[in-house]
Amino acid sequence: MLKTINTDKFEFLDDKGSFKIGRAEDTSYLYFPIAGEKGLKSSVTPNLGGDAMVNQETFLLEPVSVENLHNNKNGRNFWLYMDNGSVWSAVGTSAEQESKKFTMEQDESLVSAGFMWHTATRANSSFGVLAEITSFVPVDFNVEVMSVTIKNIDHQTKVITPIAAIPIFGRSADNLRDHRNVTSMLHRISTIEDGVTVKPTMSFDEKGHRLNNKTYFVIGYDENGNKPESFFPTVESFIGEGGSFSKPRSVYRQEAGCSAGENFAGLEAVGGLKFAKATLKPKEEIVYTVLIGVAEDEAEFEAAKKKLASKDDVEKSLEATKKYWSDKVNVAFHTGNKEFDEFMAWVAFQPFLRRVYGCSFLPYHDYGRGGRGWRDLWQDCLALLFMEPDDVRKMLVANFGGVRMDGTNATIIGDGLGNFIADRNGIARVWMDHAYWPLKTLLLYIHQSGDYEILKEKVPYFKDSIVHRGNLIDKKFETEGNHQYSEDGKVYEGSIIEHLLVQNLCAFYEVGEHNTLKLRGADWNDALDMASHNGESVAFSYAYAGNLKDLSILIQEYAMNTGIDTVSIASELNILLDSYVQIYESVTEKTELLNNYCKLVEGDISGKQISIPVSTLVSKLMEMSEWFTEHLNKQEWISGDEGQGWFNSYYDDSCRRVECYDSDDKKTRMMLTGQVFAIMGNVATDEQIEYISKAADRYLYKEEIGGYRLNTDFHELKGDLGRMFGFAYGEKENGAVFSHMAVMYSNALYRRGFAKEGYKALNALSEASMNFNVSHMYPGIPEYFDAKGRGKYPYLTGAASWYLLTMITEVFGVKGEAGNLVLAPALLKEQFDEAGEAKISLNFADKRFDIVYANSSKLQHGTYKIKAASLNDGQLAFDETKVTISRDVIDNLPKHNSIIVTLG
Questions:
Q1: pLDDT at position 427
Q2: Who's near 198: CB < 8 A, 6+ residues apart?
Q3: Around 79, how many Cα atoms within 13 Å sit in the side-chain half-sphere?
Q4: pLDDT tens, position by position, 337-354
Q5: Residue 806: inside a domain
Q6: pLDDT over 90, % of the chain
Q7: In terms of domains, do 149 and 271 share one?
């Protein structure tokens, strides 16, 4: 039995993040992701609820949101009819098991899981049986595998009749509330020798029906290859009149079912597979395999069946799946906290989940129609640069093809490289932060690789009917392939440098009444969406001020490393560079200048380019950055009391400053976002960062729910700023601990040398995540923690990429500088183990490095200095704060290397 298993916290099983927890079903809203690389994406609850789909149009199981997880009973199931006439569900969802929940008669249960595999174990001494169901999706097939082991744990022989039952939805998620009954009429259901198939006649869409070729299937066999004896292929035949999925008549009355070779039309489908009776002696077990999948054609269906044709095949596929995903996470940490190190394995895995799932297709993420957003794409690349670097260059170059000539961009990434969609809902909406992220990701890539040549790459621009930065729709627009054309009829291509200039310059000139950047549809915070006329994002004004400086420095480094002295840009773009400080200070003149530029690029452009001296371009960008920094610092600083202060983050649609200080704390308004980007964009001075930190600790910090909240309670609906103020305070963007911004706050503090303050933010998030009794979530970092500390929207969050980036480049200080490897640790003494060591293993420049920091005296950050450094037992040059290993040296190293840095 399983009574010794911990039920109030998860226990890690290895150094790859695998874990277990008892009676996970007693915690609401839990689900786990399993997916492959071919397209199938599933979620599995402790009771094997959840769903499975390839895309919005191809749901294998019924689409679910989080509230369905405890309400729906039509999940995956595996029933046992006992020789004494009793019935038991191996997933725990029979009516009787539900009624005994939270009593002494409740089943003992255990969930164990790792990257893309999930095992639910359940035992009941009264029935004398134990069931272990392992679920996974093979990497290369759109098949979800259920490997079911039934074991007799009684002292008497058992005779069981197993019945697998998987309801098949077999259509678009839209049909859940749009013509569900009508679309069931399209179903053509067949029983074959090993299962049930469903092939709808067409995909139902009133915009245009399409003939269907996909086949949904549920097939199964036992460990000896024996196929089911009979089938229940429809909901009607399985649950029976008056029955339900928690008490199906076919199981309880042991109905015969139908044989192979029968066909049914126009009904809801179930993969109901009834196997032959099995006799199990004490301690004897039998294994059944159930395959749930979707195939584009007969060949794909047969290939999947052949690949998983036996128990041994399934076991090999499971091990291959585990290895595939485990190998992906090639970053490992060793600190003084083993649980934290295992937590980091999950944080490192989350960017892969975002690559697979996008921002949809998990129960909390029940919005959108698939694909990743523009911002998500660039931020996920931050982590993938460390773990999947081989294809990143190609990906980065292709991604710039989503930029429009007016500095806006497509917001949804289609399938394959370089495929973009204007918006998932076809709305001409502009997120004013979007131009900020590409430069940040590109800088990391260039410093990791030393590849300044990427800036020369020529890339097309995205073009559609949305023009003038989303302010106008060109109804005459007609083109093929969504590319910007020049007047000679050719697709126009500009360098990546040019794309970066287009994005950041256009943003600089699009200002509101206070000469800070217009908020438009929203910035990173989608819920600030009701201030499109007069709202201003001061938060991202700080960010772009920093970007302009970074871009100036990058172009200078580019020239030094490649020998160029001029940069070619589209002639139209020069209008945004041929300006001066007096124009920067005038909202009217800046707006007019941007409008003139937008008119020039509204349709086909000239295709002509001009050359600008590097020195001129570098000086101009730095001039813009310095002017903007001074303007923001002078205008937006808010002074509090007791050495506290912070920066304003927004103006609302009524042109009012959003944040303020009041001697009555309840009337004080503070937001975290502005502080993050003022620090990260180098607008805040070191003295101001100290003031900000004190204010954030006073007004925003709540350790027990994860640390730094996004904002104080405004006690106002604020319909002139965004829907977030309609949310309950402490939920999502309105005052929750939003992991993404809390991690970026930490990152910004570390970058500016405030390691202790940065650690406080990181540590609060990890402690809250791993406190299962409060967070009620599996390992990893959620999108946010609610007012009670529950982790919400797990797995698919950009916070994971930023957390991993911060741990690698700031905490452990392992970073690239123009292709060289630099080690500059900012570890606090509590992050070292008992022996005074902290270790990170990762890849850099196609080489593997195990890097150990030895701090035997347990000195605190700020007091220790680098005393010695060695590479593969050979001494390294160093200074007191960092070790630099040149790219030339790295290129000549063996595949696996050891670095020891002694601190003292």
A1: 65
A2: 168, 170, 187, 188, 189, 190, 215, 216, 217, 269
A3: 33
A4: 999 999 999 999 999 999
A5: no
A6: 88
A7: yes
332-334 and 58-59 beta bridge pairing: unpaired
Q: Is residue 627 classed exposed, middle or buried when 0-12, 13-18 and 19+ CB atoms within 10 A define those classes? A: middle
Within 8 A by CB and 6+ apart from 897, the residues are 847, 848, 849, 850, 871, 872
Q: From CA 316, how far away is CA 175, in angstroms rounded?
A: 37
Query: Which H or E run contains 890?
Result: helix 887-891
* Cβ-based neighbour number of residue 401 at 10 Å: 21
pLDDT above 80 (res 205) = no
Contact 569, 660 (CB under 8 A): no
Half-sphere exposure of 495 (CA within 13 A, CB side): 19
Contact 146, 221 (CB under 8 A): no
Inside any domain, residue 751: no
- Residue ending a domain, choose from 604, 639, 674: 639
Do 316 and 416 lie in one domain? The reply is no
Using a 10 angstrom Cβ sphere, with 0-12 exposed, 13-18 middle and 19 or more buried, the burial of residue 223 is middle
Number of domains in the chain: 3
Query: What is the helix (H) or strand (E) element at residue 874, kind and residue range?
Result: strand 874-875
451: tokens are: 């590849």
Could you tell me the two tokens for 136?
């996974």
**Domain match, 90 and 226 both:** yes
Helices (H), 537-586: 538-562, 581-584
How far, in Å, CA of 744 to CA of 802, rounded? 7
Residue 488 lies in a domain: yes
- Dihedral of alpha carbons 630, 631, 632, 634, sign: positive
- Give the 3-state secondary structure of residue 625: helix
Q: Which residues contact 887 (CB under 8 A, 6 or more apart)?
A: 450, 818, 819, 820, 821, 845
Residue 532's pLDDT is what?
95
Phi/psi at 373 (5° precision): -80, 165
CA-CA distance, 59 to 41, in Å (whole number)?
10
More confident residue, 476 or 761: 761
The β-bridge partners of 174 are none
Q: Which long-range contacts (CB under 8 A, 24 or more apart) does 556-565 make?
A: 556/614, 556/618, 557/452, 557/818, 558/452, 558/455, 558/497, 558/614, 559/614, 559/618, 561/450, 561/452, 561/818, 562/452, 562/453, 562/456, 564/614, 565/613, 565/614, 565/615
The CATH number given to whatever domain includes residue 874 is 2.60.420.10
Over the chain, what is the mean pLDDT?
95
Residue 649 lies in a domain: no
**Contact predicate 16/115, CB 8 Å:** yes
CA-CA distance, 234 to 248, in Å (whole number)?
12
Are residues 409 and 282 part of one domain?
A: no
Task: Note whether 581 and 622 are within 8 A (CB).
Answer: no
Q: Which of 35, 2, 37, 32 is nearest to 17 (CA)?
A: 32
Q: What is the DSSP letter of 752?
A: T
Same domain, 432 and 297: no
Enclosing domain of residue 838: 812-903
Kindly write down the DSSP assignment for every residue of 662-716, as one continuous string. Answer: -SSGGG-B-BHHHHHHHHHTT-S-HHHHHHHHHHHHHHTEEGGGTEE-SB----S
Angle at the Cα of 511 from the Cα atoms of 497 and 638, rounded to 5 degrees: 110
DSSP state of 426: -
Question: Do both 514 and 620 map to the same domain?
Answer: yes
pLDDT of 326 above 90: yes
Tallying the residues shown for the chain, one arrives at 904
Closest CA to 632 of 592, 593, 589, 685: 685
pTM here is 0.96
CATH number where 145 lies: 2.70.98.40
C-alpha to C-alpha distance for 218 and 145, rounded to whole angstroms: 10
Same domain? 403 vs 314: no
Closest by CA to 676, choosing from 761, 555, 594, 790, is 761
845-862 residue pLDDT tens: 999 999 999 999 999 999
